[in-house]
Design a protein that fits this description.
Residues 1-213 form the PTS EIIC type-1 domain. Helix content is 50%, strand content 17%. It is elongated, with a radius of gyration of 33 Å. It is of the alpha+beta class and 386 residues long.
């Protein structure tokens, strides 16, 4: 019942509270915009150019559609749209300034490169929501650039658009009465205004610091893998011992598709005779699941191994398992890792089949299952060819 009651409360609140308030706000904004348009000139162009994108953020720009349509019906064009289009042009100028000032941050530059072409054509959302708005100050300076472009159009004359929808350069063919040059000057003014305002005042300190440190952090990231490669023993083949005593089955025969499909890597499945799980390699414990039903290890040769005791045993919340190691512990081949109560697992109606998977199988040339049938703990079960 709770979702139904919640839906009813929200529905009534929207009908009797939110919609009336939104109607008052919309009517007030329409009246204010009509007043600004009557004032005309550079002032009205600047105000409309600055305020349009904040209206877009709240979805209030939709109230302008009737004004556009009424203007087109009466005069053949809407003088409002070219001014409002300057808001997106200001975003373009701001993005170019950010590109130059933060050019050391290669990831950010790639983001700008992807958003700029569509921004120039009038699709501003990638620039707004992906670049300027998350940074804060660049969004404000971009709005100022839009105001400058709007002021230019407002000052030079009534440049109207014969249809609504496009923006940016895509709106240029729709400008009426050969006033395309006015619109083009407005675009250039918004580009330049947004660029200068952002370049001088719109760069957040933390973004600049991140860009300045970007090269250093990348250098450290490239050094560390090199060190790891040097310290990792090279091998032509590495053997994995059985962590359990029992019967070996093909991984593809178990019911869980995550394992049987090989999605997690190549390996085997073991139906254990007892619940003692030992380390199949010498290495480090990389993961001990909170429910103790699974454990991950990395051998000294770099082979990553997952041992998952039983199927769907995560639901037992650790009740059938006792762990003898913790994350980052160093282990020798044959060290006891986990003791599982197989009778508890069976009593819960769950399978005790235990996958042993090489999770970084793609790293190696060949994974060979070297044993089938009955097996003892410590007996070779998988061979990895580098």
């Amino acid at each position: 019942m709770t979702p139904t009651i919640g839906l009813l409360v929200i529905g009534f609140a929207e009908i009797f509270a939110i919609m009336p308030v939104a109607g008052v706000i919309s009517s007030s904004l329409v009246g204010a915009i009509n007043f600004i348009l009557q004032v005309g000139g550079g002032f009205s162009g600047f105000v409309l150019g600055v305020l349009f994108l904040p209206m877009v953020m709240f979805g209030l720009h939709q109230i302008l559609t009737p004004i556009h349509l009424e203007m087109i019906a009466k005069t053949g064009s809407t003088q409002l749209l070219p001014i409002l289009a300057m808001a997106g042009a200001g975003q373009v100028g701001a993005a170019i300034a950010l590109w130059l000032r933060l050019r050391k941050d290669k990831e950010f530059v790639e983001l700008v490169k992807g958003a700029l072409p569509v921004g120039i054509l009038g699709i501003g959302e990638p620039l707004i929501y992906g670049i300027t708005l998350p940074l804060g100050r660049p969004f404000i300076t971009a709005c100022i650039g839009g105001g400058i472009g709007g002021a230019i159009i407002g000052s030079l004359g009534q440049a109207g658009a014969i249809a609504i929808g496009p923006s940016g350069l895509a709106l240029l063919p729709l400008i009426a009465n050969s006033k395309w040059w006015v619109y083009l000057l407005g675009l250039l003014g918004a580009y330049i205004g947004g660029f200068i305002a952002t370049y001088l005042f719109g760069i957040p300190k933390d973004a600049k610091e991140k860009a300045d440190n970007y090269g250093k952090s990348v250098q450290m990231e490239t050094i560390q893998p090199t060190l790891r490669v040097v310290t990792t023993p090279e091998f032509s083949s590495s053997t994995i011992a059985s962590p359990l005593e029992g019967n070996v089955k093909e991984l593809s025969t178990i019911e869980d598709e995550v394992f049987s499909s090989g999605m997690l890597g190549k390996g085997v499945a073991i139906e254990p005779d007892n619940g003692d799980v030992v380390s199949p390699v010498a290495g480090v414990v990389t993961t001990v699941f909170p429910t103790k039903h699974a454990i991950g290890l990395t051998s000294d040769d770099g082979v990553e191994i997952l041992i998952h005791i039983g199927m769907d045993t995560v639901g037992l919340n650790g009740e059938a398992f006792e762990s003898f190691v913790k994350q980052n512990d160093r282990v020798k081949k044959g060290d006891l890792l986990v003791r599982a109560d197989l009778s508890k697992i069976k009593a819960a109606g769950l399978s005790i089949i235990t996958p042993v998977v090489i999770t970084n199988s793609d790293t190696y040339r060949k994974i060979i299952i070297s044993h089938g049938g009955k097996i003892s703990k410590g007996q070779e079960i998988i061979t990895v060819k580098a």
